[in-house]
Structure formats: structure tokens, C-alpha cells
Design a protein that fits this description.
The protein is an all-alpha fold. It has a single domain, classed as Tyrosine recombinase, N-terminal domain (DNA polymerase, domain 1). Helix content is 58%, strand content 0%. The protein contains three helices and no strands.
Amino acid sequence: MLDIPKPIPANPVKFLDRLRAYIRTQNLAYKTEKTYVQWVVHFIHFHGKRYPEEMGETEIQTFLNHLFMRKTGVAA
């Protein structure tokens, strides 16, 4: 049952539902949708569950630097 897309409302209000709706309009694979949503959730949690609409380039760069440092083992 993991390959059945999560139902979303016709007029989504929640951020992740809107993201899923947008991805589906792009006709991307469901596996791609799950991966994108997982990364966005990780990004949101990294920044203390702030709303994505409140964040910008600085937060994205901070998140990417965190991933790079974690991957390479470089100390912050």
C-alpha cells in the first residue's frame, strides 16, 4: 500500500498538500513525490518547524551546508 498516492483535498490549504498537488500537476512519479516531500519535511524540521513561506535563500544555504558538513564529516 506504500505505492498508493496520499489523497489530497481539491483545494489544498496545508503546505505539504499544496506541494503534493503541484508535484502531481507536473506528472512526476509518486516515488519522486515521496522523496521531495521527505526532503522538504527534513528542511522544515531542521529549521525548528518554521513555515517554509517564512524562509528564504539564507535558510536553504544553511541547510545545504549542514548536509554537506554531515556528508563530508567536516566539523562546523
